Amino acid sequence: MSEHNSALTRRNLLKGAGVAAGAVALGGCLSGDQSNSQQGALSTAFGNCWMCSHNCGQKAYVRDGSVVNLTGVDGHPRGSAGEGTEGTLCPKGLAQLDKTHDPKRIKEPHIRENGTLKKVSWEKAFQYTAERLVSFDENNGAETFLDATSWAETDIFRTVWRDLYGSPERISRGIHVCAGPTFVTGGMMGVGSNNRVPDYQNSEYIIAWGRNILNSFAGQFEAKGVLEAIENNGATLVTIDPQHTITAQKSDEWMPIKPRTDGALALSMANVIIEEGLYDEAFVENHTHGFDAYREAAMDMPPEKAAEITGLDAEQIRTVARGFAEAAPQAGISVWTGTAQAGNGWKATQNITALNGLVGNIDKPGGLRLWKYPSTASFGEVCEQDYTNRAEFKDPALKKYDEYSDYPARHIEGIAHNLVPEMVENEHINGIVCHHDDPLKDGNAESWIEAIEAMDLVISIDAYWNGVSRRADIVLPEATQLEKDTLGTGNWNAYPNHKWVTGSKAAVEPRWNTKPDFDILKGIANEMVEKTDNDDWTVFQQWDSHEAYIDDQLSTLDLTLEDIDSGEKNYALVEEYDYQQYGENFTFRFDLDQIDSFATAAEEAGMDTAPEWIPPGTYGDSTSEEYPLEFTDIRSVFFSHGSNQPHERLQDQFAKRNQLSEEDYRGNYLYLNPEDADARDIETGDMVTIESETGSGELMAIVTERARPGLVTSQYGFGQTSAITTGEDTREQSADGMNTMMLHNEQMDPITGQVDRHIAVDVAPAGGD
Amino acid sequence: MADRQDHWVFYFDPNRCIGCHACSISCKQFHGRDSDADDWRTVTHHQNANGQHPSASEYDPDTASPIENVPISMSCMHCHDAPCEEVCPTEAIEKRDSDGIVTIDQDKCIGCKYCGWACPFGAPTYGDNGLMSKCNMCLDQGPGSGAGAESKNEQDDPIQPNCVSDCVGGAIKAGPEKEMIKEASQAAADRFKSNNERVIVEPFQGNESNLNLVEHAASENAGD
Description:
The complex is a heterodimer of chains A (769) and B (224).
Chain A: H1 10-25, E1 30-31, E2 34-35, E3 42-48, E4 57-63, E5 66-72, H2 91-94, H3 96-100, E6 110-113, E7 116-119, H4 122-140, E8 145-148, H5 156-164, H6 173-189, E9 205-209, H7 221-233, E10 236-240, H8 246-249, E11 253-255, H9 262-275, H10 281-287, E12 288-289, H11 291-299, H12 303-310, H13 314-327, E13 331-335, H14 345-359, H15 379-382, H16 397-400, H17 420-425, E14 431-435, H18 445-454, E15 457-462, E16 474-477, E17 486-489, E18 498-504, H19 517-532, H20 546-554, H21 561-564, E19 571-576, E20 588-589, H22 596-605, E21 629-634, H23 648-657, E22 669-672, H24 674-679, E23 687-692, E24 696-703, E25 711-715, E26 759-765
Parallel strand pairs in A: 8-14, 9-10, 9-13, 10-11, 12-20, 14-15, 15-16, 21-25, 22-24
Antiparallel strand pairs in A: 1-2, 3-4, 4-5, 6-7, 6-16, 17-18, 18-19, 21-26, 23-24, 23-26
Chain B: E1 8-12, H1 22-30, E2 42-47, E3 69-74, H2 83-87, E4 93-95, E5 102-104, H3 114-118, E6 125-126, E7 132-133, H4 162-165, E8 172-176, H5 177-183, H6 186-194, E9 199-201, H7 208-217
Parallel strand pairs in B: 1-9
Antiparallel strand pairs in B: 1-8, 2-3, 4-5, 6-7
């Protein structure tokens, strides 16, 4: 599990690999710039795009067993603006074509022998995996094995690792590293995580709060829905973001807010709305709890006070507060990671979500929609075999051991990303199975790398050689989305009155010696039957294929995968539902004093249960003389987490987007304001070093007025531990750009343990261009 | 000869473009072109150099968009008066009567690059073999393909150019001029008529200096 640097540069490798990928992509029809006559017949198939896990429909054109083109599916609930509109694919979704045929993928199963990863057959890989799982359980206890497989396209991962193997340790992308405060406040306040995505299509007033919806969307229907609302409803768009973005640009109001002061702005808007009598008195009276405490906090935040805190203009705060309240209930807020990935993110999100209850837009057209999932069958409902849930009475270590008694998050969550290294040191976690996830990019990176190296067993199920798979004991190469049968669903989408499912059969065979995740897990389970003599592991044998399992999941809707994946589309609208179905007893909680777990955590964290203003630095970093700049990381339309960075088309167009494609560099960029750049003698295109108290890294600077003075930002998912380089030998140090989470330590939201990505740093020229 | 109204043209609405480059990637994938080859469809980003990140007291959303960065997606415009065709010494370039698409027959191309000099928009690109290739409105797949292909207007269900099929913002459209003009605002249609009917571009709803940027991108001086 050690690494070494190579003299080879990444660009040399990519140049060679890119030519091969280009030829493969057209199935040998074309060579270089020459066009030959077309070969085999062109057929079409479908996909459910999983590049960012939000299931936009893909139409795949296949010739001679290769995907030769990809477009969207018209009318798709996630990939279009709804009925009669074009379905498309964003850059990430288009990259699935290259991913399918990417020669840099992991092609064979590997196991580590004498310190080196060696290619083995699937039979050997499954046998070895089962042996190691059995010995791990004997030596460490299955309950110390961390399940990091929430990125999966099948729900049987949970059955395998939690129910059958018996581990209560599970870390997910959603709550733990994405937007814990957004998910959990919404749930506690009574609206679930629907505070993220309003009913765009019917909205007249949309606030993108800390979101760049037009570039970083959860399904293209978000961007399309906003554009449709502007065009069809004349909707007002407001963007609250310290940086200027494409969404800010298309907004009627851009509020260039000081980072981490969103909680004060939200209270101040409530102040205006309450003072001017613009709130929904009937809704507040009949359907809310804790209004008095909320009003008290709001009254303490008049716009002039908020203006001082946020750096905004008091009149602009009034304008937006009035506009939002007057357009309500056809007014919605979209909030996700931007306000959640901060130490005071809990209160920011609580205060923002409270505005929905105040104006009574809950489950009304154009407001906060209470989206619903379709009623597909769960694993338990379709499994004909009884089995023992081996994790049922086990508590995760965070809740169980005194070592973690200082962390309020243990009352709310079962794990916190930043604490995993400490848990490994304490031997409360001793192994991990990681599937397409890249925890080394998600926070506390240096400690996480050491933790992975210290674990007794690391199983990686992945398509690429990244920081985890390179360090794993067992590497199981997974077929990617177009190579397997998939069923997708979700709640929010372009049809506000419909639940939906999307399905796709494999467009092409698994490339090289890879397997779909369902088959990998079934292979492990079948070996576990042999190694443990426990027949519970035979639960998957009732299904001959993933398609058979999907058909069982769909049986409650009287559908099959074949039904969905046929004709001109690969989705079905099912189960119509109306607005305002929440009933008389529905309660929206401004104050969370009734939620015991939260009340306990809040008390330990020194927080009130009602909305309140908590300044930045109360939890997490403050800037200082030594580290005078605030850093936070951002996203772009080209990349999702850490898994898209290997794609040369995305790298090249990302460089073009940043007007630096002439440079050889293909990493992430550090955006800084001219004021900060001039003081440090930095110009666009310079390589710079960024340093925090914890770590440092090198990346290319872009000096721009779109960056706020005092704030520097960069895309995450690059640099060290990246899935950029090829092969089992480790060249990850040569990957362009930096892993921004090398700057990070244990900063977190104390309530959910969500990683706080705001870090005090300084920046200096690194020398050279 | 087909009526000029039947000639295919592109339509672009900068107000709906989100600058995501899906069009550029989609184009290259459809035509099997390497990532580092020159783009047939480009997205460029235009900014007002005078802007500054506003302090709160200075920011006036009604009048100031001081740091806008406007994305503009462009490709070969399949000009009615295609200058590339006029200068081609081997008649490899054809402005097709049937559907107005300008194609290149690489069997006739000698790689002299006159077309590249003649085109005001930088549409022709040259591969490793030195031969010209450019947008063919996806008449067929691959550089140099489409010459001699059936007219889009004769096809039962002509496919949309891939950049149109994958435009996330719905900013790019393509079709016969008579249909595209129906999609356009009056202002866009008027400008189209007065600008040699190359490409329909909606007026940008930003501040005046950025409107000029968009106008410039759709003018003959785009490369200046």
